[in-house]
Amino acid sequence: MNNLKEDEISEVSIITPLHNAEAYISQTIGSVLHQTYQKWELIIVDDVSEDDSVQIVENFSKNDARIKLIRLRENSGAAVARNTAIETAKGRYIAFLDSDDVWLPEKLERQLTFMQENNYPFSFSAYERIDENGRSLGTVGVPKKVNYKQMLKTSVIGCLTAMYDTSHFGKVYMPLIRKRQDYGLWLKLLKQTDFAHGLQTSLGKYRIRRDSISANKMNTATYNWRLYRQVEKLSFLASCYYFSHYAVRGLLRTKFPTFAKKLGVMQ
């Protein structure tokens, strides 16, 4: 692996929304602390947690000033939490890590090297899926690159792997919708660059939870449709076209998961 010199690059701002994740947040923070690249800030925005999540984060932040906690006054959803963190961010690069996911130790170093050496402003990577107990559910492969129209057919970018360069885009925020806001951000970014580039190495672990907001497939599909029509302003026919691709890929994920993994459509 190529060595990345920390004095040649601005820091990374890591965006983490938090809501009732006391069982996982220590592992998430630990995976950032153990990064081989250490020039980062971790901005955690609590969306009115009712468990001990905040206390756990405060214990970490007392020992490391790079870990910053912001508390929202009312429950506002992941989009508001993430946008609040982006607004506060000071790093050149914006990366995302949810409060129940984890990164592998070389995630930042490998991805930053990939972006710097190739002058890529927007990148993502393969990742592993795990269950609530951390058991592997297989690796999700990704394409080498994807453009806006391809992304409309299905989101191939795992949020925990995405990173964009503010020196190219400026700060770009998520649309204020309750679900699929990360997908909306990827589409925003792809309107400003030709491609997002995929790193084939798995760099993180995405946790599948029974109570996950994305567990309700019908509800998620509804928000996908709203994203096409209300956020992207696509025509009814264009929305039908892209939604049909989304639906077929959903069928592949459910009925033919091995084939779906090869296509990189396991999200």
From TrEMBL:
It comes from Methylophaga thiooxydans DMS010. InterPro entries: Glyco_trans_2-like, Nucleotide-diphossugar_trans. Signal peptide: none annotated. Keywords: Transferase. Residues 13-136 form the Glycosyltransferase 2-like domain. It comes from the Bacteria. One of its GO terms (molecular function) is hexosyltransferase activity. SUPFAM superfamilies: Nucleotide-diphospho-sugar transferases. This is Glycosyl transferase, group 2 family protein.
